Amino acid sequence: MQIAVIDLGIGNLRSVEQALNAVAPNANVLVTSDAAAIDQADRVVMPGQGAVGTWFNALSERGLEQVVRDSLDSKPMLGICVGMQALFGHCEEDGGVDGLGLFSGEVRHFSNFHQQGPAAPRLKIPQMGWNQVSQRLDHALWQGIDDQSHFYFVHSFCANLNLNAEQDCIYGEANYGHQFIAAVGRENVFAVQFHPEKSHNDGLQLLKNFTQWNGK
Amino acid sequence: MPLAKRIIPCLDVDNGRVVKGVNFVGIRDAGDPVEVAKRYNQQGADEITFLDITATSDKRDTLLHVVEEVASEVFIPLTVGGGVRELQDVHNLLNAGADKISVNSTAVFKPEFIREASSHFGSQCIVVAIDAKQTQWLDKGDGQDRWEIFTHGGRKATGIDAVEWAIKMADYGAGEILLTSMDGDGTKAGYDLKLTKAVSDATLVPIIASGGVGNLEHLVEGVKLGGADAVLAASIFHFGEYTVQQAKQAMRDAGVEIRL
After folding, report:
1. Is A197 annotated in the active site?
2. Minimum distance, in Å, between the CA of residue B50 and any CA atom of chain A
3. Which domain holds residue B183?
4. What is the DSSP secondary-structure string of B139-172?
């Protein structure tokens, strides 16, 4: 089994690679920016860190948008963090960036949703740390993971529950000043705002589930 | 369900071994960093921090190797600091498997470095470490406590006010602040809660309290009284006084949101 981890030259992909190697020792994990290799892979992981505008620039510089769109149509695919945010219609970051549009709705800065004023709880941005995820819907990727398990999050932008119409796509939610989308999916695509590769045993379980998932 | 407060065991690494200094001097060997990190991971640590206290750069490759080895077996966030001077250093550590890079002295000499590093790699992976000591020198006659920051592992005074510095670093793009009280470090008398509170109140980025933990109550105080988002400790874990699991239970018993 070939698993391609899309390399856009941003952030640390070693942890994703190493975590996949740990849960699927027989798989061939390839960190790559080669369109042909991504095209030939059985599964694709789309990680992301940093700013979404930079992420999309890197995607187009490497000529990978088409192969990403093809993969989204055809094989098990896992988006992580900015790799999840990129799947929405629009992201507010970097002055506004159009996303891949697999899910409707806009990814916005946390401060849009936090209460303001002296009595409001002071929430640090980025959200950095372990938060509990409510599993709203069953999914093969939740197998063996308890509802309300903690996962590791690092992000300043989030997909808001109410702004995003397709409630049947929302597999997980978490709360940081307001409820936001922690996991979203449709058909062969599953995407998470948190970092499974940094989320200890539950994160490894999710990655293991992904390596065994048939995308249905 | 708020965000859980983090417990972060810290490994001071010198030439590939875990050591623990008292007030930044006097060294006690605490083992092989890979083994120590694995033990904390099994105990449920939320994150692990490595601070390379090796003075010379030729030994830095040892640390890269340690980070690589730990990252292949430990799947929680790893922060690595010590001797980071160039963007290339950040790049190398991230590539070795670090998730966050802690910068101390270089931020003081070249604040722009924090701007560059955070815009290049993202704020989420740039931690500014501040070593601070209470001082009368910066007193402004307003009755407020003042702390001065130090560089070079606590050896050089800077004349810079710690709270003002934290605000500036957050503004430059630091994603987190690792705040060490030099008065407390190694004393086991508890965090400097006033310092922690002052910095936490002044900035909107997460604060890691460090320096002085002697018992589990100190961890609770760091969060409840100091307003810290994460608490860092070294020797109470290294020498087997407490496990990370015990620390987490104590925090939960005290009503702190924690990942057990």
Report:
1. yes
2. 16
3. 6-253
4. --SSS---EEEEETTTTEEEEEEHHHHHHHHHHH
